[in-house]
Write a structure and sequence with these properties.
With 99 residues, the chain is of the alpha+beta class. Helix content is 35%, strand content 25%. The protein contains four helices and six strands, in the order E-H-E-H-E-E-H-H-E-E. The strands form two sheets. The chain has a four-stranded mixed β-sheet, covered by helices on one side. Helix 1 packs parallel to helix 3. The two termini are 26 Å apart.
């Protein structure tokens, strides 16, 4: 399960969600705007990082958008997502080959 902690007007949050959507993976978005307790809990879970987005794949803390993008660029994001063949993406419930 992918969780992404965001705020409403964060351009990096929107970029991270676009990248994950292009990958064809679902995610649970948690908007921490205006919720001090939830924001504080997120900072604790993110090892003290106070910026958004904060992205988790299962129990793995990916970090922010730059970290997510770097993983994807290095070809490691698909492995983290548990994909055997990164050229196949899930689009509305069915697999499609890309490549």
């Amino acid at each position: 399960m992918i969780e992404i902690y965001t705020t409403r007007h964060c351009p990096y949050c929107h970029a991270a969600k676009r990248l994950l959507s292009r990958k064809g993976v679902g995610f649970n978005e948690v908007d921490v705007s205006g919720d001090a307790k939830l924001r504080s809990d997120t900072v604790g879970r993110a090892n003290g990082r106070t910026t958004v987005p904060q992205i988790f794949v299962g129990s793995t803390h990916v970090g922010g958008y730059d970290d997510l993008f770097a993983l994807d660029r290095a070809g490691k994001l698909d492995l983290l997502l548990g994909r055997d063949d990164p050229s196949r993406v899930l689009v509305k419930g069915s697999l499609h080959d890309h490549g």
